[in-house]
Structures are given as structure tokens and as C-alpha cells.
């Protein structure tokens, strides 16, 4: 697997993958109206293009034979959804195509993020994950993340609770 930054001119490909992987993960668990409202507001070329243009955020591809099979997004303090702590980096999104799940890509991504965070002098990595996503929570806990709080994530009109997890890098 190779990692590379997603370029602004790849917004169409990012949008397609973001919509597909988000639908695979969450469409069946939410009402069609709430799901469509969220996707229409947040997973468009315009919205993702603006995120790509933010100098305090970085999107990365995970590629197999030059083809993207996963992506993730990191945020420095000014772009973070909550903490805004310059000592930490936020993992805001991590999605893998369904046919590539179970191949160890998530673990490779976590290792790569830790490398980036250390290079940037970060003391910790943090993220939010839906409280009902027990599989993801267990995955992060296996990789050393520990709960430290929660926040509200609004999907359409549905206010959902995300568990906040943190991994110290000391």
C-alpha cells in the first residue's frame, strides 16, 4: 500500500469515494431523509473542495497498485472539529472501500498517521466515532486509543453522540 496526499484536482474522485464509503458504512443505519440531507451538504465537490483547500487539513489516499482503496483526513488545531489543541492532530475521517476491509489497511493507516503526527511534533492523535459503531471503537482501542469524552454529530436532523478517543504518542 502506498500513501499520498490527495490533490485539489482529484476532488471528483474523492467525492465519489466519500459518498460510496459513507453510504456503505451508515446509510442503512439512518433514515433516508437524514442521510441524504447530510450527504447533500457535506459530501459534494464544493464542500470537499473547500476542505481540500484548507491549509490546516490534509486528505490522504491509500493506494493499491496506484488505485485508491481508502482515504483519511487529518486536521491541525485551527481546523479541528472540537479540541483545537495545537499539541494534537485530529483524525476526522477514515474510510476504506468495502471490498478492501479486513485486509489490514486500517492498521497501516493508523501507523502512517502516527508517523505524520510524530514528524509534526504532535503529542497525541484524537478522533470521534459514533457510539453505535462498536466495531470501529474496538478497532481504535486495539490501537491504543482511549475514550476521553463525547460530542454531538448531526446527521441531517439526527443528533448523534460520538465517543472521543485519544492516543498519546509519548
Describe the structure.
Helix 1 (11-26) crosses helix 3 (45-53). The protein has 170 residues and is of the alpha+beta class. It has 5 helices and 7 strands.
| Beta-strand fraction estimate | 25-35%
Q: H/E element string? A: EHHHEEEHEHEE
Question: Mind telling me the CATH superfamily name?
Answer: Gcn5-related N-acetyltransferase (GNAT)
Q: What is the CATH fold-level name?
A: Aminopeptidase
Number of strands: 7
| Poorly predicted parts | none
List keywords for this structure.
Aminopeptidase, 7-stranded mixed beta sheet, 170 residues
Task: List the topology elements.
Blueprint: E1 2-5, H1 11-26, H2 32-42, H3 45-53, E2 57-64, E3 67-75, E4 88-96, H4 105-119, E5 124-130, H5 134-142, E6 146-155, E7 158-168
Helix pairs in contact: 1-3
In short:
By secondary structure, the chain is α+β, with helices and mostly antiparallel strands. It contains 5 helices and 7 strands. It has helices spanning 11-26, 32-42, 45-53, 105-119, 134-142; strands at residues 2-5, 57-64, 67-75, 88-96, 124-130, 146-155, 158-168.
